Amino acid sequence: MKKWHLKSIFASFLMAGAVLTACSSADESSEKPKEEKQVEKEGKTGDTKEAKVEDTAAAKQVGVFNEMKTELEKAKEDKEVDWDVVQQKYDAGLQKEVAELIPEADQAIQAAIAAGKNGEMEPIVAIQLVDKTIQSYFYQSQKALQKEAAAALEEDKKDEANAAFIQVKHLAEQVFIPTAEKRDTYYELSGDASIAENIHSGLSAQEEALNAGNAEDFQVYLQVSDKSIYRSYYLAAKSYAEKIEAAAKEGKEKEELTIMQAEAWGFLQAIKGSLGGGDEAAAAQLDKTFTLNETDPETIKSAETNALFSKAIAGKIKGYYENAPKLLAADNAVEAKVGAMEGNMFLKMLQSQLTEKLGEEKANSVFADAEAWYNAIAESKTDEAKAKGETVITAVDQLLK
After folding, report:
1. Beta carbons of 204 and 218 less than 8 angstroms apart
2. Which of 80, 205, 266, 319 has a CA positioned 20 to 30 A from the CA of residue 49?
3. What are the backbone angles phi and psi of residue 39, rounded to the nearest 5°?
4. What is the H or E stretch that residue 42 is in?
5. Alpha-carbon distance values, 192 to 73, 153, 189, 301, 361 (Å)
6. Are 395 and 350 in contact (CB under 8 A)?
C-alpha cells in the first residue's frame, strides 16, 4: 500500500473537524463527481470492454426510486399523491430486490404506502418512511456490491469487479452523496472536513486499487467509502434528534416533529444492525426512540440519543481493536489491516464527542495514537499495536462515564 495514502488518511485525524483526502492533489476524482455514463473495464486478459452504468441493476433501481419520489413529493406541495402509482412502481422495480435483501424494510415500505393510501398516516410522514427506508436498502445493496467487487478482484476477475464497482459509484453519486451534503450543511463541514468529499476520496482510492489489481488496498479503502456513508446516516439520525428537541422547545406542531422522527427512523434502519453489534441494547433503544408508535417525539432528547450512539459506536471500536491483533497473531495480515482501518473509521465518528470530552489537544493525541496503532498492525508490530491500542480504548471509555 502506498504510504502517502495512509498518511493522508490519518493526518486528517490530527486536524479539528477534518476527515481525509485519500488521493493526491493530481487526482481530480476526489474533487468532483465523475461522469458515469460509461466506464471502460479491463479484464485480466488485457482486453477492454465497455460497461454502461445505465444498464445496471443499481441504475435501474435508482431510476424507479426517483420516479416514486416524483409522485410522492406532490404531498410537499399539498397535492394529492397517487398511491397506486407509487405501489405499482415499487412492485415492478424494487420490491423483489428489497424483500430479498432486507425483508423488514420491504414490510415497512409496504405498510407506509398502504397507510398513506388509506389515510391512516399523514402523506408527508408516509413519504419520509418510504424514501428513507429505500435509502437504507440502497446502503445495504452498496455493501453487497462492494463485497462482490472485492471478491472478484481477489480472484483477478477485473471485469466482474468493475461491473460491481460502477454500481457502487452510481449509488454514491445519486443517493449517498446528496444525503451526505445535507449533513455537511447542517454540521458546517466543508473542504476536507466534508463527508461528501470523504466518500469521493474513498471511492477514488478504491478505483485506483482496482485499476492496479491490488485487492488488498481495495479492501482497506472500501472501509473508508463504506464507513463515510455510514457516518452520514448516523449523523442524519443524530441531527434529527437535535432538530426534534429544538422544535419541541419552540412549540412546533406535533406533526412537524413526527415527520422528522420518521426521517430519523428511516436513516437508522441502514445502520441499526451494525450498531447492534456494538451494543444491542443501545441500538434497540435508538430504534424504539424513533419508532412512531412507540415514542412521543416531544419526549426525544438529543443528549440521550447521542449517548446511545456513542455507546454503540464505542462497542464497535473496541471490537475491532480487540480483533485486529488476534487476526495478526493468526497470520491473517490482510483481514487485520482491513479491520484496523474499519475500527479507526468508527473512531472518526466520535471525533466531536472526544474533542468535547477531552479537549482538542488530547483528542488529537488520541487520533495520533490511532494512526500509530493502524501502522503497527499494518507492519505486524504486535507489541507496539497493543500499547497504542490500549491508549485509544482508554480514551473511548471516557465517553461512556
Report:
1. no
2. 205
3. -130, 135
4. strand 39-42
5. 33, 29, 8, 30, 20
6. no
pLDDT at 10 over 90: no
Interacting residues of 93 by C-beta distance below 8 A, sequence separation 6+: 60, 61, 63, 64
Contact 202, 225 (CB under 8 A): yes
Enumerate residues 6+ apart whose C-beta is below 8 A from 241.
264, 289, 300, 301, 302, 305, 306
C-alpha cell recorded at residue 216: 488488498
Tens digit of each residue's pLDDT (9 = 90 or more) over 72-104: 999 989 899 999 999 999 999 999 999 999 999
Q: Which three cell numbers stand for residue 33?
A: 463527481
- State the Cα–Cα distance between residues 246 and 129, nearest whole angstrom: 22
What is the rounded CA–CA span in Å between residue 128 and residue 269? 13
Q: Are 43 and 158 in contact (CB under 8 A)?
A: yes
Tell me the per-residue pLDDT of 102-156, one tens digit each, with 9 for 90 and over. 999 999 999 999 999 999 999 999 999 999 999 999 999 999 999 999 999 999 9
Rounded-to-integer distance, Cα 253 and Cα 256, Å: 6
* Angular region, 380: left φ>0, alpha ψ -120 to 50, beta rest: left
